[in-house]
C-alpha cells in the first residue's frame, strides 16, 4: 500500500468487503435504513469507478448463533438461524444499492430461490466482471463456521485481491481502545504476529486461509465517509495484515 495518500486510480480491481451485522444496526433498530444507505453510497462510489466489489455480511444485529448455543440451544440450529439473519441483511443492502442505481446480486449458501440466487462460483465471477456488486449470504452453509471464514473462502474463490474488514474502530489495537485508553494501534502486521499476539482481525480459521493463499486484509473504520475508497485507492489507513516486509510496530 502507498503511504503518501490516495492516487488517481484504484490500486485494487476486485475486493471483498466484510461487513459485520452490527454495521447495519442503529441505536433503536436492528437494521437502520440511514446506515445501510451510507454503506451503499460508499460501495457505489468505488463500483462506478470500475472496482469489482463482493460483500460478505454478518447477522449479529439480528441473531448470534454462538451466543444462543451458550444458552442451551443446539449449536447447529443456532448457527443456521444466524445464517438466515445474514440473508436479511444482504437483502437490505441489495435494496439500498439498487435504489441508488447499483446492480446487485445476492447469492446464498442455503438455497432459497424465491429471494436470492444459490452460490455458484463461476456465476459470481461473471456478475463481478459485468460490474454487479455480489453479496454472499448464509455463511458457508455449514454450522460452526463464522462469516469471517466465509469472507476468506469467498475472496479466494472469486480471486479478490484483498479483504476489506470494516469495523467500528480505525484499525487493529493492542487491546480494546474503548476499555483501555492506553491501547496502541498497529499500522502493519504479519499473519503470524496476529496469531501470536491473539489480536482480533479474523478468526483463526479465516486468518490461516488468508495466510496460506497470500490474501492481504485491511482493517479499517467503516463509518468514516470515503474510507472504502481510501483503502482501495491505496491510502494507508487502518491496519494492513499480510506478508509484510516491514517491522511490525504499533502507532504511538
The low-pLDDT segments are 245-249
At the fold tier of CATH, the topology name is Carbamate kinase
Helix content: 25-40%
**Intertermini distance:** 20 Å
Q: Would you tell me the structural class of the helices and strands? A: alpha/beta
Count of distinct strands? 12
Radius of gyration: 17 Å
* Mean of residue pLDDT values: 91
Q: In the CATH hierarchy, what is the class? A: Alpha Beta
Secondary-structure element sequence? EHEHHEEHEHEEEEHHEHEE
Task: Count the domains.
Answer: 1
Q: Give the neighbour order of strands across the main sheet.
A: 4-3-5-2-1-6-10-11-9
Quaternary state of the chains:
single chain
- How would you sum up the major sheet? 9 strands, mixed
CATH superfamily: Acetylglutamate kinase-like
Strand content: 15-25%
What sort of overall outline do the alpha carbons produce when their principal axes are compared? globular
Number of helices: 8
How would you describe what is shown here?
There is one protein chain. 35% of the residues lie in helices and 19% in strands. Helix 1 (33-47) links the parallel strand 1 and strand 2. It has a single domain, classed as Carbamate kinase, CATH 3.40.1160. Helix 1 packs across helix 3. The protein is globular and about 50 Å long. By secondary structure, the protein is an alpha/beta fold. It has helices at 33-47, 65-69, 75-99, 121-129, 147-158, 191-197, 204-213, 227-232, and strands spanning 14-19, 52-57, 104-108, 117-118, 133-137, 162-167, 172-173, 185-186, 188-190, 217-221, 239-242, 250-251.
Amino acid at each position: 500500500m502507498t503511504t503518501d495518500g490516495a492516487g488517481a486510480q484504484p490500486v485494487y480491481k476486485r475486493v471483498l468487503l466484510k461487513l459485520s451485522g452490527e454495521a447495519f444496526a442503529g441505536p433503536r433498530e436492528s437494521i437502520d435504513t440511514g446506515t445501510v444507505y451510507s454503506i451503499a453510497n460508499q460501495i457505489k462510489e468505488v463500483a462506478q469507478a470500475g472496482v469489482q466489489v463482493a460483500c460478505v455480511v454478518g447477522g449479529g444485529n439480528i441473531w448470534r448463533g454462538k451466543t444462543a448455543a451458550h444458552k442451551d440451544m443446539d449449536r447447529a440450529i443456532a448457527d443456521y438461524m444466524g445464517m438466515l439473519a445474514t440473508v436479511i441483511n444482504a437483502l437490505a443492502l441489495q435494496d439500498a444499492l439498487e435504489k441508488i442505481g447499483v446492480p446487485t446480486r445476492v447469492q446464498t449458501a442455503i438455497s432459497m430461490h424465491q429471494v436470492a440466487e444459490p452460490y455458484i462460483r463461476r456465476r459470481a465471477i461473471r456478475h463481478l466482471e459485468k460490474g454487479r456488486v455480489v453479496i454472499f449470504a448464509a455463511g458457508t452453509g455449514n454450522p460452526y463456521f463464522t462469516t469471517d471464514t466465509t469472507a476468506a473462502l469467498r475472496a479466494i474463490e472469486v480471486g479478490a485481491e484483498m479483504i476489506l474488514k470494516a469495523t467500528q474502530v480505525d484499525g487493529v489495537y493492542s487491546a480494546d481502545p474503548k476499555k483501555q485508553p492506553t491501547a496502541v494501534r498497529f499500522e502493519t502486521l504479519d499473519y503470524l504476529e496476529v496469531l501470536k499476539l491473539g489480536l482480533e482481525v479474523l478468526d483463526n480459521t479465516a486468518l490461516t486461509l488468508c495466510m496460506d493463499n497470500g490474501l492481504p486484509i485491511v482493517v479499517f473504520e467503516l463509518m468514516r465517509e470515503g474510507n472504502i475508497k481510501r483503502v482501495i485507492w491505496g491510502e494507508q489507513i487502518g491496519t494492513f495484515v499480510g506478508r509484510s516486509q516491514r517491522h511490525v510496530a504499533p502507532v504511538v
